[in-house]
Amino acid sequence: MNDPYEINLEKRLAYLEKTNRFKMMALDLTRELGEFNSSINQLKTPRTIFEKCQARASQILDFKQMAFLLVDENDSDFHLYHCSPETGKNHLEKEIDVLIEDGTFSRAVLEKKPVTAYSKDFNNQLLLHVLSTVSRVRGMFIGVLEKKSKHIEEASFELFSILMAHCANTLESFELYSQLRTSNDRLKDKVDQLSSSESCLKNEIREKTVIESMRQNAEIQKKFLEEKLWQAQKMESIGLLAGGIAHDFNNILSIIVNYTSLSLSGLQEDSQLYNNLKKVQVASNRAIGLARKLYTIGRKDDHKKDIINIINTIYETVDLLKPSLGKNIEVSINIMDKDLLVLAEETRIQQILMNLITNAGQAIGQAIGQAIGQAIGQDTPNKTGKIIISASKTDIVDEKPLLNINLTPGSYAKLSVADDGPGIEDTIMKWVFDPYFSTKKGKDNSGLGLAVVHGIVKNYKGTIDVQTEMGRGTTFIIYLPIADRKKTGRKTWQTNNLTF
User: Fold this and answer.
1) Counting beta carbons within 10 angstroms of the beta carbon of residue 163, is it exposed (0 to 12), middle (13 to 18) or buried (19 or more)?
2) pTM for the structure as a whole
3) pLDDT value, residue 25
4) Has residue 315 got a pLDDT over 70?
5) What does the radius of gyration of the chain's CA atoms come to, in whole angstroms?
6) Is the CATH number of domain 1-302 1.10.510.10?
7) Which of 98, 170, 394, 465 would give a disulfide with 477, using CB separation of 3.0 to 4.6 Å?
8) Would you list the domain boundaries of the chain?
């Protein structure tokens, strides 16, 4: 008769051996994908990424067929991009339609872990796993399993989730490098155009040297266009850089989060090591929040948009901020039109207003503090300040680069926040929208406020202008496209009130 103690010891040794094998496989997976990331910038299409992940997936689980779907950012639709083998592609597309109709597709998007389901004829079992990063959902993996999921070890599912996370992050890297290449090509074209324009301008000036005023105006226009081009390209490059930093930061965090969760699952909750790792997990989640904020500065910020009336948002935001501004600051609202409808998320419009109004209040507060400081030993001045928030509808008939607005002709909501503070010096005007630039002191002044405002306005296909005069105050003017009530949306796949 076998000794029960020896049987339990053998089971324990087998379990430890399986666990170590799983950890070594996870480390090997991380190393290989990390080495592969270094060559992402040379890829023209994401097909190689899917082939690499497909090869690794077949080492973890047995599949009859594997397919990868990608999300189109323009219409938010899922499209089947890669299928292996190709012979069963049409049948698999029909299975995807069934998964959408019964809600399995939506559940896979929400749960962000392996989800299994039977095929329509119950002859096969399918495995779904969303490809998601911190910024957005990027696609979906669908595989036909060789054997039923109840025969698959849980450790294999965990390792498969790590593989899908790396696949999603690699897709994000590929997109970032593609944007950088496009940005560089666009910058080169614009520089060539500018050089050509400059050459033509010099020829005209030589031919019309008698008319000095025309030469001066041409030089002023040329300089202005160069500054606008440089500022636009600088903000685009900074936005891409911020998105790249957030992406690389997230890649590191994903490894920390995965291994922390993996380690926590094998520890007692009352152990000191468990408490230490819990603190690591909390700190990692905070860092993920910072990464999301960096994405807002310059990269495409996907969120649900609705047609909203910004007039209501203005009144609600002012009511919220008035108590924090102080009794020495008077806030007035000047509304020219009853309805100003834009396609946006209300919280983003509130974020724009809160940043601009708070900045205006701080500028006025600085001026009041200086006036009181200069009056030491004299009667304390009753210094007050004003913030004026205006909103109206305006029509852009033609592009007007010389008026600091460069917009496609059409109807726009014009929103302005003006203060009678000290104004902004010419030497720092060019930096006001740069991330991490701030003239205010203190640890809470991150310098991201106006950079985030610029990023939101840019994402909504609008523009922002600044008018300032030393000693007279500053006005920030925002133009957002007016929304069309009658506009219908594009065809999308909808599942259980979720639109992709």
Assistant:
1) buried
2) 0.43
3) 60
4) yes
5) 29
6) no
7) 465
8) 1-302, 306-481
